[in-house]
Design goal:
Number of strands: 5
Strand content: 5-15%
Keywords: Cytoplasm
CATH superfamily of the largest domain: Dbl homology (DH) domain
Largest sheet: 5 strands, mixed
Subcellular location: Cytoplasm
Protein name: Dbl homology domain-containing protein
CATH topology of the largest domain: Dbl Homology Domain, Chain A
GO biological process, one term: positive regulation of Rho protein signal transduction
Oligomer: single chain
Radius of gyration: 33 Å
Pfam families: RhoGEF
CATH architecture of the largest domain: Up-down Bundle
Structural class: alpha+beta
C-alpha cells in the first residue's frame, strides 16, 4: 500500500511539472518567434570553422524562392536545428539534418543532392585540417624539439620530406577551410557557390607530388625506427598513446593527404552532376574539374617518372657488365624483365631494337653456358638487353650478367649482326 501511494504522489508531481514546463515552453516559443523574423538577416555560426574573410552571397532565383517560402512560415525550427548543429556536429553528418524541414521539402532532388555535396566538401575539409594539425602538434613539433635536445637529426631523409610536406599542407588547407567556412556562414542555409574558392587554390595540389614520391620510403623508415625502438621510434610510440590520436598510429595519419587527394575528384564530379547548367556556379565548377584533372594528371606523371627512374637505378645495381653504359636516364622507361623464351613484346612492336641484342661474349664450348631458362630480356622503351641470370639478391630479385652489347651513342657506328644461333644465344620466330 505505501508503494501505491508513493506512485500516486509521483504522478501528481509529474502533472504539476508538466503544466509548469508547458507554460515555460510557450514563453520560450514566443521569444523564438520574435527572433525568427530576423534570423535570416543574421549570420549563422556553423561549427567546424573560423571566420577569416567576408564573401557576399550569390543570387539564385530558384534558391531564393525556396528560401523565401521557408521564411514565410516564420518557424523557429530553423534556429533550433542550427543550435543542434552548433552543439553536436558529430551526430549530424548531412546537410538536411541541420536545416529546416520546410526548406528541404521545397528543394528539388538535384539541388538537395548538390547541397549535401557542398556540405560534405566543407565538412571533410575541416576534418582533414584537423588531422593535419594533429600530426603537426603531436608528432612533428615534439620530434623537432627532441632533435634540438639531442643536437642531431633523428628523422630519416624521406620521412623528413613527408613531414615538411604535411606542414605545408596544414598551412594552405587552413586557408582553404577558412574561406569555405566564411562562404558557408554568409550563404547559410543554402550555399550557392564554392567552386570559385577551390579554383583559386587548385594549384596547391601540385605540391602533393613530393609527398607521394617519398611516402612509401617514409613508411619503411618509420616502421624500421619503431621496430628498432630507437629515439624516433620510442617517441612516436609514446605520442601515439595520447587520447587525441584516437587509438590510430602515425602511419594512419600519414595516409590522410593521399586519401584526401583521391577524394577531391569524386567530390567535384558529384558537385558537377548536381549543378544545373543554367545555374550560377556551373561554369566555375566545369573549370574546376578540368583544371583539377590536369593538375592531378601532372602529379601522377611526376610520381610515375620517379618510380620508373628508381626501378632503372635498382636494376643497374643487379647487372654485371654494363661498363660505362647508364641504364637510368631520362625518358627511358623500364617495361619488364622476363625470360627470353617468352618472347619480347617490345621487339615485336619495334624490330629495330634487335640491334641492341648483339652478343659481346665469345662462343663457349660449354653448351649449358647460356641455358635458355637462365636467359632474360630486359625491355625498355628504347632498348632491349639480353642477360643471363646468375643469382638473386637478399630480397629475391634476380642478378644478371649482361650478354648483349648496349648500343653505341654514335648513331653511324656499324652494327654487327650474328646469324648463327650459337652466336646470338637467343632465338626469334620470324
Amino acid at each position: 500500500m505505501p508503494l501505491l501511494s508513493t506512485i500516486r504522489r509521483r504522478d501528481s508531481s509529474q502533472k504539476k511539472n508538466q503544466i509548469s514546463t508547458h507554460q515555460e515552453q510557450q514563453q520560450h516559443t514566443t521569444t523564438q518567434d520574435k527572433m525568427a523574423t530576423s534570423s535570416f538577416k543574421k549570420k549563422f555560426h556553423v561549427p567546424f570553422f573560423h571566420n577569416t574573410a567576408k564573401t557576399a552571397p550569390a543570387k539564385d532565383s530558384t534558391l531564393q524562392s525556396a528560401l523565401a517560402s521557408t521564411q514565410k512560415k516564420n518557424s523557429p525550427s530553423l534556429r533550433r536545428r542550427t543550435i543542434v548543429h552548433h552543439t553536436d556536429c558529430r551526430r549530424n553528418t548531412i546537410w538536411s539534418d541541420n536545416v529546416d524541414e520546410e526548406l528541404v521539402a521545397n528543394l528539388s532532388p538535384r539541388e538537395l543532392n548538390r547541397q549535401e555535396v557542398l556540405y560534405e566538401i566543407i565538412k571533410t575539409e575541416h576534418e582533414y585540417v584537423r588531422d593535419l594539425r594533429l600530426i603537426e602538434e603531436y608528432f612533428i613539433t615534439p620530434i623537432k624539439q627532441a632533435e634540438e635536445t639531442y643536437r642531431k637529426h633523428i628523422v630519416p631523409e624521406n620521412l623528413n620530406k613527408v613531414f615538411n610536406s604535411i606542414s605545408y599542407f596544414l598551412f594552405i588547407h587552413e586557408v582553404i577551410s577558412n574561406c569555405l567556412n566564411e562562404r558557408q556562414e554568409n550563404q547559410f542555409p543554402l550555399v550557392r557557390s564554392i567552386s570559385d574558392i577551390l579554383l583559386s587554390y587548385v594549384w596547391v595540389f601540385r605540391a602533393y607530388a613530393p609527398y607521394l614520391i617519398h611516402y612509401e620510403e617514409a613508411l619503411r623508415e618509420l616502421d624500421e625506427s619503431i621496430r628498432k625502438k630507437d629515439k624516433l621510434g620510442r617517441l612516436v610510440r609514446k605520442q601515439q598513446k595520447s587520447p587525441s590520436c584516437r587509438n590510430m598510429p602515425l602511419t594512419t595519419y600519414l595516409l590522410k593527404p593521399f586519401q584526401r587527394l583521391l577524394k577531391y575528384p569524386l567530390l567535384i564530379t558529384n558537385l558537377l552532376k548536381g549543378t544545373d547548367k543554367e545555374g550560377f556556379d556551373y561554369d566555375n565548377t566545369v573549370s574546376l574539374k578540368t583544371k583539377l584533372d590536369e593538375v592531378l594528371a601532372d602529379v601522377e606523371e611526376q610520381k610515375r617518372t620517379h618510380d620508373n627512374m628508381e626501378r632503372l637505378r635498382e636494376l643497374e645495381t643487379r647487372i654485371q657488365g654494363l661498363g660505362p653504359f647508364r641504364l637510368a636516364i631520362n625518358n627511358r622507361q623500364l617495361l619488364r624483365e622476363s625470360p627470353a623464351c617468352q618472347g619480347s613484346i617490345t621487339l615485336k612492336k619495334q624490330p629495330s631494337l634487335r640491334k641492341s641484342l648483339t652478343v659481346m661474349s665469345l662462343p663457349t664450348s660449354n653448351p649449358k653456358r647460356h641455358s635458355v631458362r637462365n636467359l632474360y630480356t630486359l625491355e625498355c622503351n628504347d632498348i632491349v638487353l639480353l642477360a643471363e641470370r646468375t643469382g638473386a639478391t637478399k630480397d629475391g630479385h634476380p642478378v644478371y650478367k649482361l650478354l648483349s652489347r648496349p648500343p653505341s651513342p654514335i648513331d653511324d657506328e656499324p652494327i654487327l649482326i650474328h646469324t648463327k644461333p650459337e652466336d646470338s644465344g637467343v632465338y626469334y620466330d620470324e
